[in-house]
Design brief:
7-stranded mixed beta sheet; 5-stranded antiparallel beta sheet; globular; single chain; alpha+beta
């Protein structure tokens, strides 16, 4: 039988934060709310001259600023982030190696727009093509990579759409690996932030590529079009894009202290404008917000009494580290609640969800994550189960 939902609350007076240690009861246990400390006034976000944009904190996925972030717009060469992502995934699985040679087809060689200047009939190492895709935004390199992985551009576009669906990119559909215009080729600022976040988190060994400022191939030197790589030392990626239809687009990421932000802009007016508007977004985010680490993965937050098990206690905590992004100076005003909505009866598997942990700032829930079992509890023997049953009945009478 399910245990009645139980909530434990605690004041965030120190970090790491601790839950109050009380027994398991079907009740809410309130604790005093601290007075505001170092109250920081957060102004409205600056106006950004773009059709759509978003500013996301990378570790939590929390959105700090956004406008039209789900609008479906042509992404231009931001598309190549997905092409590179799939190549990174293939390398991570060992199905593609950095030194593998890729045949350059006539189709790749003839592809118009920005180019790496590969030659038809030659072979180019995978990592050279990756630099051609990310740094030079070469359509020829992008098509060559797509053909090498999937056999054709159309087949590769199908892979791209499958990957987009897997990542939860609900406002994205790809028709090609390059971003060349097509009526059914679109994405959104939010979806591109999701993709950038996944690249940063899951392929850190490849991420350094996005910070490289230039690449020379076939005796032709081409600089990275992301002007922020020269203007802001905290910026280390990711990708620019431009077509007449899309305008000037940018996905950028920066890390300062323990906070990494991801910014996306669609449809600015010029190369300079997309850099300047992104600087405004990042400056606002870093000036008024900070990331706080609250709990480690597998850290025991509470010990629960389990009935009918081979042991009496179950440690509960989080499967992954818990961070929050809050206005600067507001850490002392955070509150945590632990809600158990799982039967406290054996058997319980390690990693099984027991409830939720909610983090609030004032009346606003800023994070809510699963509370999981940190150890397994097997069903106890007959006499242990009977003994626990008697104890529960006596406690119920009292």
């Amino acid at each position: 039988m399910l245990n009645t939902v139980r909530t434990l609350s605690a004041s965030f007076l120190t970090v790491p934060l601790l839950f109050s240690a009380v027994g398991v009861h079907a009740e809410t246990v309130p604790l005093p709310t601290p007075a505001p400390v170092n109250q920081v006034m957060v102004p409205a976000a600056p106006d950004i001259a773009a059709k759509s944009y978003i500013l996301m904190e990378a570790t939590t996925g929390q959105i700090l600023v956004a406008s039209n972030e789900h609008e479906r717009l042509p992404p231009a060469s931001l598309t190549k982030l997905m092409t590179a992502y799939i190549a990174e995934s293939e390398m991570d699985r060992g199905r593609l190696k950095p030194n593998d040679l890729v045949n350059i087809s006539v189709n790749a060689w003839k592809t118009g727009g920005s180019r790496m200047f590969v030659r038809e009939g030659t072979q180019v190492p995978v990592m050279d093509l990756m630099r051609g895709i990310v740094i030079q935004s070469g359509n020829d390199a992008t098509v060559a990579m797509a053909e090498h992985i999937a056999g054709s551009e159309d087949a590769f576009a199908d892979l791209m759409n499958q990957m987009a669906q897997r990542l939860g990119m609900k406002d994205t559909h790809f028709m090609n690996p390059t971003g060349l215009p097509h009526p059914n080729h679109y994405s959104s600022a939010y979806d591109m932030a999701i993709l950038a976040r996944d690249i940063i988190q899951n392929y850190p060994d490849h991420y350094a590529l996005y910070a490289e400022k230039e690449f020379t191939y076939n005796n032709i030197r081409q600089p990275n079009r992301n002007l922020l790589l020269d203007r802001d030392p905290s910026v280390d990626g990711l990708k620019t894009g431009h077509t007449d239809e899309a305008g000037y687009c940018l996905v950028a990421s920066a890390k300062r202290d323990n906070t990494r932000l991801i910014g996306v802009e669609f449809g600015t007016d010029s190369i300079q404008a997309r850099a300047q508007e992104m600087q405004k977004l990042l400056a606002y985010g870093y000036r008024y917000y900070e990331t706080q680490h609250l709990y480690d993965a597998k850290q025991s937050l509470q010990s629960l009494r389990i009935w009918g098990g081979d042991v009496d206690q179950l440690s509960v905590g989080l499967a992954t580290p818990l961070n929050v992004v809050i206005p600067r100076g507001q850490g002392a005003n955070l509150q945590a609640s632990l809600e158990v909505n799982h039967a406290l009866e054996a058997p319980i598997a390690e990693g099984e969800q027991m409830g939720t942990v909610s983090i609030k700032l004032g009346d606003q829930v800023v994070r809510q994550v699963p509370l999981v079992a940190l150890n397994k509890v097997e069903e106890g023997g007959f006499f242990k189960r009977m003994s626990d049953s008697v104890i529960r009945k006596v406690q119920g009478w009292l």
